[in-house]
Specification:
Layout lengths: L2 H9 L10 E11 L1 E7 L7 E5 L10 E8 L2 H4 L3 E7 L7 E7 L3 E3 L6 E8 L11 H14 L4 E2 L30 E2 L8 E8 L17 E6 L9 E7 L2 E17 L1 E3 L2 E3 L7 E9 L7 E4 L6 E4 L5 E6 L18 H8 L3 E2 L1
Parallel strand pairs: 16-21
Antiparallel strand pairs: 1-4, 1-6, 2-3, 2-5, 5-11, 6-7, 8-11, 9-10, 12-14, 13-14, 14-17, 15-16, 17-20, 18-19
Length: 346
């Protein structure tokens, strides 16, 4: 039997693993005079400072940073990302930023809400700036009272006074004409913290979750003998196309099966309906497609290959028993314990 067929058999009761739990975020930020970047999970969890500006008053040096965002749908409902920026209260202040995950947002893209706090700003990000209690208050106030930021004239790439032209590494991912310097108010000399907040869902797509599809479960077995069928020519059609095919011998027998998964029992719906799967002797080629699948185990992405088997609803009758080549493996203890528990039925 081919490796592909053996893989098909093993996949009948195999769950997907290694699902990605977080999406990596890359960002470019600069602010006159300084800034910190804060990730707020929400749901009562404390905000986390994921980056502190490292260049102080050297705002001409664009800073790059990376962090991760939980991409579960539940987390994205309450998660946010904020840039807290501040100046010296003497001259014009501004902040420009690009955040790239599954999508890209930036100052001027319409995703940030700005809040001008009444908390006096002080120090540089590496040694000062808002403390933990102030950060909690600043983020909460920003989420509750955020407004559209004040966008300064001109663009970051085209030059904005007094900062001139700046080249952000991630600028190829944005509309350069809309990429602007921003502040929380048109009063650019106010010496308090300005907070710019965006929803994590604007940057990260929610990871697909496992779904329960109705239908029968089948356990498939390789077969021997099965030499009475002559080659059959059939026309078949599915979502991938149609073909005139010549079927060979049966190679799999699939029994309707019950399943215990996450302490739930999935019962057999039709104990009389089996599947017999036949090899292809001849068929037309199939175009490969990138696909997303989902079931009770987990979603996954894959690409279809050529047709391997054609399965037909079949009856089954037990004849004289045949001594198997090898004894079956005993049921694992954890499965025995699962069978003894009260189970929910679906």
């Amino acid at each position: 039997m081919s490796i592909l067929k053996k893989t098909l058999i093993s996949m009948c009761l195999m769950s997907a693993s290694g699902m990605v739990a977080a999406t990596p975020i890359t960002a470019n930020v600069t602010a006159d005079n300084d800034f910190i970047v804060v990730h707020s999970p929400g749901n009562g969890s404390s905000p986390t400072v994921v980056y502190r500006g490292a260049n102080g008053s050297n705002w001409k040096k664009i800073e790059s940073l990376k962090f991760d965002i939980d991409n579960s749908a539940q987390s994205l409902e309450t998660c946010s990302v904020s840039v807290i920026a501040w100046g010296d209260g003497k001259v014009s202040q501004g902040m420009a930023a690009i955040f790239k995950g599954d999508s890209t947002i930036y100052t001027g893209s319409g995703h940030f809400k700005a809040h001008q706090s009444s908390t006096p700003s002080s120090g540089w990000a590496q040694t000062g700036g808002p403390n933990a209690s102030q950060i909690n208050t600043l983020i909460a106030d920003s989420l509750a009272n955020g407004q559209s930021p004040y966008l300064l004239p001109g663009s970051v790439a085209g030059g904005t006074s007094p900062w001139g032209t700046m080249n952000f590494p991630l600028a190829s991912n944005v509309n350069v004409n809309n990429f602007r310097w921003a502040w929380s108010t048109s009063n650019l000399a106010q010496k308090t913290y300005s907070v710019f907040t965006a929803a994590c869902g604007d940057i990260v797509e929610a990871a697909p979750v496992a779904v329960h599809m109705p239908g029968e479960h089948f356990q498939c077995y390789g077969v021997r003998k099965a030499d009475k069928l002559r080659e059959e020519t059939i026309m078949i059609e599915d979502q991938f196309g149609k073909t005139r095919a010549v079927l060979g011998k049966p190679v799999l027998l699939c029994n309707p099966s019950s399943k215990i998964h996450n302490e739930k029992l999935y019962k057999i719906r039709d104990e009389e309906r089996h599947l017999v799967c036949y090899d292809f002797v001849k068929q037309n080629k199939v175009k490969s497609r990138n696909l997303e699948i989902n079931n009770q185990f987990a979603p996954d992405e894959l690409m279809n290959d050529q047709r391997e088997l054609f399965c037909v609803p079949s009856s089954k009758k037990h004849l004289d028993p045949i001594k198997p080549n090898k004894p079956g493996k005993p049921i694992p203890r954890e499965m025995q314990r699962a069978e003894m528990k009260p189970l929910k039925q679906r």
